[in-house]
Amino acid sequence: MKTSRILLTAATAFAVTLVPLSAEAGGKVSTVAEGLNSPRGLAFSPDGALYVAESGRGGAGPCMAGPEGDEVCYGETGAVTRIDRGQQSRVLTGLPSIAARDGSGAIGPSDVSFLGKGNMYVTVGLGANPAARTNLPPKGQQYMGWLLRNGKPVADIAGYEATANPDGGEPDSNPNSVLALPGGRVVVDAGGNSLLWVPEKGRIVTIATFPERMVDAPPFLGLPPGTKIPMQAVPTSVTLGPDGALYVGELTGFPFPKGAARVYRVVPGKAPQVYAEGFTNIIDIGFTHGKLYVLEIAHNGLLSGDPAGALIQVGRNGAQNIVTQQLTMPGGLALRDGKAYVSNCAACPNPPSGPGSGSVVRVGL
């Protein structure tokens, strides 16, 4: 079974303590937006405003069995929020979202990207076999697992997984990251373990897939010592590198071993190459001034019980320099003017945090 949910039920067991944010300086953080519901991917628009996708908090139903066997309930609480000069407002609302009854573990709008003025692209997650959409209300069927342009569905990513199934595994789709480029959009399907090209016109095509690896079975499974089990890649993020290649970060699937996540360099037409490794549960990546920054949703692993994330600068020869760990289950990264903007509390459990516990913070680099 594919591991497609990024905000896993394991996260809801974390005892979350929100870290007080100090004045911004090198590695310090300050809040620029708050009151958000499961904030995820971030992007700057051409006019300089910052936008963040909110996966929402689910709703009153219908409720159904979720991809991890837990109950999830549907609602239209997903949104996109605009942040500009100290003001924030939701510019897209009423987008589909599924979550536990308390609003935790939400899947909904997952990323945002711009191509010139008037072209805002948003991915909406699914986290399930595409056939599961038949259990959703009409809007859920029409939006979940899709790429949107200015709030309207334009490409059925989950539908492509159902028909093409690029990695050959059990059909599973969770569009998680989008990069808008001239001529088309690059989309990461975390459930499908694939990187896709969505052209302006024509059919979706596969750029690359990311294979599973064999890793040590965790002791709590009770298997004989030395037993290996398969771990899926679960790619979560894509960015354009300074060399013009695509770079993809992976979360890794169960058992989410510490230090197993990688960043791949992808040139269309060639197999992905490992660019940097030794990370844990990557949720986003980005470049600024030629330097790679990696955002980990759980620095000590999703099964560790520790909700602290980390922002890491990758130095020469792959050396990792932690910029800050004053993050609680972060969900997205944008870089600009020597600062990092991170969506915080993307997967905090409810309670104790409650709806609207998410924020966007600015980190001095």
TrEMBL record:
It comes from the Bacteria. Keywords: Signal. InterPro entries: 6-blade_b-propeller_TolB-like, ScyD/ScyE-like. Residues 1-25 form the signal peptide. Coiled coil: none annotated. NCBIfam families: ScyE_fam. This is ScyD/ScyE family protein. The lineage of its organism: Bacteria, Bacillati, Actinomycetota, Actinomycetes, Pseudonocardiales.
